[in-house]
Amino acid sequence: MSRFSSWSCVLLLASCAGGIGAEQDPGGMGGTGVPGMGGTGGTKVMPVAVPGRLTLRRLNKDEYNNTVRDLLKTAKQPANAFPEDQAGDGFDTVGEALSFSADLVAALEVAASDLVDELVARPPTDPVRMGFLPCDAVSARNDACARQIITGFAQRAFRRPVQPDEATRLFALWNKVAAAPEVVTAPQPQSFGLKAALMGVLMAPPFLFHLEMDPNPNTAALHPLTAFEFASRLSYFLNATMPDPALYAEAESGALLRDPMVLKKRVDALLGNLKTLSGNFATQWLNFDDIDELNGILDPRVFPMFATAANRNAITAGMKSETLSFFSSLVTEAKPVETFLTADYTFLNGRLATLYGMSAPANPNAMTRTPTTGTPRVGFLTQGSFLFGTSDPSRGNTVRRGAFVLSRMMCTPPPPPPADVPPLEAAKVPKNATARQRLAVHENTAPDCRACHLITDMDAYGLSFENFDGVGAYRTMENGSPIDTAVTLADGKTMLNGPRDLTTYLAQDGRFAPCVTRNLLTYGLGWKFSADEGPAYATWLASLARDRGNSMRSILDVIIESEAFRTRRGEAP
Amino acid sequence: MTFDPSRRRFFRNAAATISLPFLPSLMPRSAWAACPPTPRRFLAFSYGVGTYIPDFTPPTTGPNWPSTMILDPIAKSPQRSKVLILTGIDDRKLGTVPSPAGGHAHGAAPFLTQVPVTYAINDTRRSSVDQIIARSIATCGPPVLSLSLSVERIRTSGSCDGADCALSDSMSWWQGAAQPTYTTAQAAWDQLYKGFEPGASKVDAERRLKLRTSVLDHVAGELGTLKPKMSKSDRDKVDSALTSVREYEQKLQNLSKAKLSCTIPARPASVTDQRMSTELMMELIKVAFQCDATRVMTFRLTRTGSNLDYRWLLPGAQYTLSHDVSHHSFRARSPDPVAAAKLDSFKKISQWKMSQLAAMIGKLDSVTDSDGKTILDNTVVYSSSEIACGSRHSHWDLPVVMAGSLGGKLVTGQHISFVNPVPVASHMDGNPTGATRRTIGDLFLSVLRGFGVTQPTFGDTGTRPINEIMT
Hints:
The structure holds two protein chains of two kinds. Chain A is mostly helical.
């Protein structure tokens, strides 16, 4: 074995051990700090100052589409034609990662132009048009009307009142265009001015960015957000769109920041629509991208049920829908957050029921809440989106399942596999061996790599799901041999057998709720955690949520009430 | 012709009257070359999961380098004399830094930037060689600064080999901003040609151009107003947006002046099949250079860590997944049928990749340029992978193949090794040392010199150009 290899495995060993300890140890959390906020009885103090700072981020594609939908009541989805967004720490809301490019500017310009054209082409009695164009500044120059249009449109688009100098510059843009030599000869030169000003709004920084200003940009002291900035954070966090008029009004009146009951009722209202929180947050947290990746390369010889694209797409769409309905039910219902792992129900349509070997719901086309008591299925980790999404094209991937549990459920990812991993099926493997037998041979072939596989319990977690094949169907035999899911964890004591044991264990392990909190903070704030003390902060917020019912909703509430969510800071130059 | 009725169609008609504000350069003007009379072009040709070095690297150097199994499609091609094979060149300083990321991400992030994966994703030092070249010739006429294509889809969430996915899947970067990658030939065509549709009357076109340049100026002004009120990180983001606005203005200006030296090709069909998409994209690259629609392109034949299924290439083979077979393992030295079967598949897939490179080079050599030479002669193609040895994730002896002399600026028709004897052994034999070894950064410095760009260093590895490859 080469020098490099030994060195890398030593490193892996160290990071395997360190990763877990760091997450589990709540010991460093004493000390003094800023008092906790919101409904905690004041008994807890913040263990660490709000770490890190948020880098300016632009609207991502979903946010852009949703924002123009709500601003202009348009059915267009202009951002579908934008270049792909970039993710940071796995989420497309992180400012550091979201890039600008000339191509994006080009696409934004086309979008702005199309949207303004659509607005002015609405009939005169159309309420959207009447709302934004309440007077006639087009058939003849009418400065008062032009200013009124600019201020009204920009205030709504900017999610905050318009600064006088901003309005002045937009008004100047209008007049510059309307008076340009090329334009004055047109039948309605003012219409060009109007279009320029409205496009100017739709391409302005306060529209395109989540713009939060630091009064002292060169100091790192925390300062509270304005009510409008807070309202925007809240709205984009829960609904991935701009504040609705009711939320905006509560920001304007100050009630949103002042009155906890107003905030609570507003959060209730925003959570009435869980489509974006599940569709944007859960899909990224749970790596739905991997489902699409695998969908294209699945081996139809092994999984004939997936042989046609139509079947593949329908089944995988059902898997996603199952998990998103399940996630939403946990936000809505006041169950402990660990129910995500241990629930005795799921959502099925006819196709999924067939795949799972369960009886189909009365309406096979609708996702129907179905109990799983008495079946091998329990919680998210026996749903197709996980079992399928982690697979290889021709079979389930035991190690990757374990790695997914570690990284996405526990936030303690194993290090990446070292180079030169020997093939799983070495010559010693008996023909038709089970995955467990192959894995055992692999570990014996490469004892230096046992470290991460065993210390992190990665293999044990993965082996717990061996009763499910690569597409999530239940099985008791693999290659003619009975499947054995009994495992002993690295502590040498804990013995588990199958998903029910494992998920019960994971639910008590203490890593899950902080991990959900951490992912929600990254998604909701665009907070790139890797370089700071974010994980400890997330653990602390999760402990606050535990005292308030420990539900998904209580985690959301604690995040929204947290200092991290209500403040920001500049940075020392 | 039926075309998308884009508003952009008026550019050409309005050519005579366009006057855009002077655009400040994005690099020190002194570092730039004057525009060459014949276009100079750059193409990066990348593929995932490395290769099998013992059957890739020719065992001897010089113009008569012997063919190897994997390089055979290149060795046998009519363009052999226009190809340069380089051995003993690495980015291991960046590839072996301890970090949570794996070997593929470690090689992919610096692939064209030589900026390691461990730097912040938005670190403004993260600029790729193609983007530097593109900006050095931004005022030379090509309407589209640069274009990046990938046959495989781009991952936009989750983690890619332990790092943010853009670091793995985006090849082109400018000052910490990932540049867009287009994953269909149709989308790439739209970027290249949509602006060239004749349509609206001249007077209408002038009016609308006035409107949009005024709006863009306004947006640039608003961004400029924000900057002094922001902290460093936010200012960098605003700067990136401002740069993008200016570059788009530059594109409008170039579009207004540009004359395509070709008939606009038909918009490609919509395909999802890997091989058909590959063929369409390689044809699109050739025609884009031929038309002088752009001079800088990057192309991912297969993605970083690609695990595509090559069942179609390997009939009857048990192991056909690209990444899976790349881990054929040198460690299983005893006769191991599984390792041997995987290695066999990997070598065939690696050879297929070189056949595609040979086809790309052949396409570029099939078209006559404005000076009577071929497009290839006035181009430099750079081809490599994020790692050298698939099984080992090594970051030395990268499989560098170059083609085209960039109008006589670069050496071709050779195999040059910076290590004597040529390192053809398996990469399990350790991480070699040697003062004569060169870095990818040094190579990029040489390429930049060929474009007249004389920056002193490149990324974290380039300190001196490689004289042996410069004429």
